[in-house]
């Protein structure tokens, strides 16, 4: 009887668990992908399913920025993949089934007992959902598959294309031997960048506090001083998490008052001065549903549009060639909902507007004229440029003056995102998700110019998408306003800057939009670490690149060159490429650390999510390889000992194909 095929998946969080589900589904459905007995090893020091980011052992104050009904780990009828669709419950449906006793083995707590579809759950609830998803996936595996979980860290992988792969673990001498390895490492820490080391050294020298980019749940906030001015650089999800941990997490309380909240300080809070490129917080998530007809998405940025773009000669520029069609798709989603859901707000029949809309460039003057005729109120028109940079051209003398303006801005945003009268914003959001789902094919083509990829896609577009679509629940912005009224949080403005002032021994900060400057006793980088394989917190990834068995993505054309720090994988099958551009047939990688670009490991139901398509494709490639490749009969590895460490070191650079 042939020995089992063996796969090691490094990373058992949502990426690894999602891949396991797709392996299971394809084994059930495709005879040509069946390998006979299959042994799968999952390696992760954190619990399988939630992994590090979503583990239960984190502050209960930290929450998701998605509603429970908008989170699923299961494919559905919208997903365009080769493998079979295997539906399952969204987070909200799962909670309902747990309460009804239809799903067992899950501990009911107060939050689960009351969770509704439009609630924004804690990450601890999401952890329970992901733990259950992992167990559910294991139960559905064919009898020919066995799974082993190793609660440890993988430190290296070695082996040529025609050899068994050796996956070395931190807690054992002998490595795991496998026919194929998948790196599903998720988000990773990184060694400090040169500027961050300089700022940390300055802080140490002058007795200041400095927090580099890191994951909020793991950040040591004990050095952030109470009562002292502290600069926060960043206004996204990491900022929200840190804002909560440094206020409510230090004993402060929010209480309802009138239509808002009042914050009662504990006295242990710092005084937070926050700024960013835009100078405003991410838009609040909507809580309403569409009022009109369901949008036909994608309409103007679909597979045919991608075909047309790829057929053009020469290199593509994102803002020039791609963004106009994307913007039109977003506009279509917005105006379809406005016209069909709120006919009292428009002065033209939908059919007439749609006909003209289809003929015009969305970013052109004729489209602006059409919208002006059809939509009387400016507040009901979609203005992407103003949405992108709401403080453009504004200036203030003092931080307090900016604060007054931003109070009004945030209150207006909260009103729009909670009032169904503005459900056209949800139409735009859904179109934005549709656009996002079409982009992997464009990226995999490699047709964007290097400069455009770095500055316009990775830079501008990724930021705009997060700003519009990945904001916090509305009550987080209500808390932000309460903290501002209490004097605990203040605003720095757009295009903020910060420098280490040796003469004063303090951090000095300001922005392009405010004349006033600030001296501070601390600096918090309120963002995640940038991907950087060579300086990754994962030893395995560092070794892979340093030894030449992996490579970082370098985008270069003419005089332009930029190292993204992302692990280079082949676009069509996610196989790892070495420094010479050769694909390793037995190694795959997916997730935020790769040049496949980050896609969320779970998704909103019925959105043809890229993560499900990616997982399905990698699972099929992996199974196809296992079914067709010759397998070495002997998978027993040579133990690694302290005395033979030099032998292990000699393997460096010998794993290339």
TrEMBL record:
Protein name: Putative NAD(P)/FAD-binding protein YdhS
Domain called FAD-dependent urate hydroxylase HpyO/Asp monooxygenase CreE-like FAD/NAD(P)-binding: residue spans: 8-187
Pfam families per UniProt: NAD_binding_9
InterPro entries in the record: HpyO/CreE_NAD-binding, L-asp_N-monooxygenase_NS-form
């Amino acid at each position: 009887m042939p020995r089992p095929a063996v796969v090691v998946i490094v990373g058992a969080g949502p990426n690894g668990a999602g891949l396991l589900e797709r392996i299971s589904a394809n084994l059930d459905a495709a005879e040509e992908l069946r390998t006979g007995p299959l042994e799968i090893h999952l390696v992760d020091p954190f619990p399988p399913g939630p992994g590090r980011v979503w583990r239960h052992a984190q502050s209960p104050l930290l929450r998701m920025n998605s509603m429970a009904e908008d989170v699923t780990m299961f494919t559905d009828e919208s997903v365009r993949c080769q493998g079979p669709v295997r539906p399952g419950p969204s987070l909200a449906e799962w909670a309902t089934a747990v309460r009804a006793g239809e799903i067992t083995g899950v501990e009911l707590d107060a939050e689960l007992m009351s969770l509704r579809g439009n609630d924004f759950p804690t990450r601890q609830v999401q952890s329970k959902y992901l733990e259950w998803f992992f167990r559910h996936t294991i139960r559905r595996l064919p009898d020919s598959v066995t799974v082993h979980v190793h609660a440890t860290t993988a430190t290296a992988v070695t082996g040529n294309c025609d050899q068994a792969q050796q996956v070395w673990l931190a807690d054992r001498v002998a490595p795991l031997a496998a026919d194929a390895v998948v790196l599903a490492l998720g988000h990773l820490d990184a060694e400090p960048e040169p500027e961050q080391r300089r700022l940390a050294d300055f802080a140490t020298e002058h007795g200041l506090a400095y927090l580099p980019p890191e994951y909020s749940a793991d950040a040591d906030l004990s050095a952030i001083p109470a009562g002292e001015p502290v600069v926060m650089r960043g206004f996204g999800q990491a900022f929200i998490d840190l804002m909560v941990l440094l206020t409510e997490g230090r004993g402060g309380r929010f209480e309802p008052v009138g239509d808002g909240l009042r914050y009662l300080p504990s006295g242990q809070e710092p005084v937070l001065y926050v700024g960013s490129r835009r100078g405003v917080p991410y838009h609040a998530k909507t809580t309403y549903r569409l009022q009109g007809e369901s949008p036909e998405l994608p309409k103007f940025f679909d597979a045919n549009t991608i075909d047309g773009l790829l057929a053009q000669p020469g290199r593509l520029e994102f803002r020039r060639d791609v963004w106009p069609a994307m913007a039109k798709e977003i506009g279509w989603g917005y105006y379809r909902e406005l016209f069909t859901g709120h006919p009292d707000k428009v002065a033209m029949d939908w059919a007439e507007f749609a006909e003209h809309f289809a003929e015009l460039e969305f970013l052109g003057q004729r489209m602006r004229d059409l919208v002006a005729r059809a939509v009387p109120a400016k507040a009901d028109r979609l203005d992407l440029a103003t949405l992108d940079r709401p403080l453009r051209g504004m200036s203030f003398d003092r931080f307090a003056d900016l604060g007054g303006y931003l109070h009004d801005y945030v209150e207006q945003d909260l009103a729009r995102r909670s009032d169904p009268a503005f459900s056209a914003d949800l139409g735009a959001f859904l179109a934005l998700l549709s656009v996002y789902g079409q982009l992997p094919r464009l990226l995999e083509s490699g047709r964007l110019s290097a400069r455009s990829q770095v500055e316009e896609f990775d830079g501008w577009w990724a930021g705009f998408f997060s700003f519009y679509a990945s904001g916090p629940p509305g009550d987080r912005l209500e808390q932000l306003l309460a903290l501002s009224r209490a004097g605990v949080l203040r605003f720095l403005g757009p295009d903020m800057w910060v420098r280490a002032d040796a003469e004063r021994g303090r951090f000095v900060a300001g922005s392009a939009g405010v004349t006033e400057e600030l001296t501070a006793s601390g600096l918090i980088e309120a963002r995640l670490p940038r991907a950087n394989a060579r300086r990754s917190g994962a030893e395995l990834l560092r070794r892979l690149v340093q030894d030449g068995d992996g490579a970082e993505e370098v985008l270069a054309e003419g005089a332009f060159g930029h190292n993204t720090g992302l692990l280079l994988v082949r676009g069509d099958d996610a196989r790892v490429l070495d420094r010479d551009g050769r694909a390793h047939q037995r190694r795959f990688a997916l997730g935020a650390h790769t040049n496949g670009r980050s896609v969320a490991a779970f998704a909103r139901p019925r959105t043809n999510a890229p993560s499900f398509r990616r997982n399905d494709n990698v699972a099929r490639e992996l199974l196809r390889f296992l079914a067709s490749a010759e397998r070495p009969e002997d998978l027993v590895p040579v133990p690694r000992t302290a005395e033979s460490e030099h032998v292990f070191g000699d393997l460096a650079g010998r794993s290339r194909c």
